[in-house]
Amino acid sequence: MTEYFIPAGSGESEYAEKRSQFLGHVRCVESEDEARAFIAEMKKKYYDARHNCSCYILRGGTERYSDDGEPQGSAGLPMLEVFRREGVENVVCVVTRYFGGVLLGTGGLFRAYTRAAKDALDNAGVAVVRRWVEGEFRCSYAAAERLKNELGAFEAIVTDTLYAADVTVRLLVGEERAGALAQRLFEASAGTVTLAVTGESFRGVRVR
Fold first, then answer.
1. Burial letters 165-191, b for 16+ CB under 10 A, else e
2. What's the whole-model pTM score?
3. Which of 139, 143, 91, 135 minimizes the C-alpha distance to 79?
4. DSSP string across the chain
5. CB neighbour burial string for 6-28, b if at least 16 within 10 angstroms, e if fewer
6. pLDDT tens-digit series, residues 104-157
7. What local confidence, expressed as pLDDT, does residue 1 receive?
8. Sheet with strand 91-98: strands edge to edge
9. How many angstroms from the chain centroid is the CA of residue 44?
10. Rounded-to-integer distance, Cα 206 and Cα 27, Å
11. Residue 26 contacts residue 90 (beta carbons within 8 Å)
């Protein structure tokens, strides 16, 4: 099984520390050219800021960061470490600093750039990219919530719930867990519910 994590969308953050403003921006990118273009875009947009620090990580191992005039190791590297810790790839981040007239010191800068990057990622969310089995099951209204509660143990994600004469629950589940989930739904419903496989796909789905 191959899976990896990426930003689920675009994320932004704002953080103030001793009158300095830190504006974080996170995007999902597919190439180094895309990452560099986004960094250039942010530098152009915030041309009047003292610093536009950046980093990116691409699937395959490419990593880059820039302190953009801040003390070495106080900005770009701590930002990069945020995404390393979260295991997120294909990501670019720019944190813009408007200087407030008070020096923060290396430790203060480290914490501020880390927080700005982490808050922007949290606002973007994280998606897992992998191969999913698409499936659905039908059940009674009385059994629906109980059976949906079984899905978490298999890391299955509900994509839709349809209410008619009975309830149809549509879901995504990792291909290696589909068989076990089908068995569990069958057992939990005393043999009245079966999981029907409706397709498969390789895509990103938000998980946090």
1. eebbbbbbbbeebbeebbebbeebbee
2. 0.82
3. 91
4. ---EEEESS-EEEEEEETTEEEEEEEEE-SSHHHHHHHHHHHHHHTTTSSEEEEEEE-TTS-EEEE-TTSSTTSSHHHHHHHHHHHTB-SEEEEEEEE--SS--HHHHHHHHHHHHHHHHHHHH-EEEEEEEEEEEEEE-HHHHHHHHTTGGGGT-EEEEEEESSSEEEEEEEETTTHHHHHHHHHHHTTT---PEEEEEEEEEEE--
5. bbbeebebebebeebbbbbbbbb
6. 888 899 999 999 999 999 999 999 999 999 999 999 999 999 999 999 999 999
7. 53
8. 11-17, 20-28, 91-98, 51-57, 63-66
9. 26
10. 14
11. no
Across the chain, which has 208 residues, the per-10-residue mean pLDDT values are 89 92 96 97 95 96 94 94 96 95 84 96 95 95 95 93 96 93 96 95 87
Residue with tokens 């990057």: 117
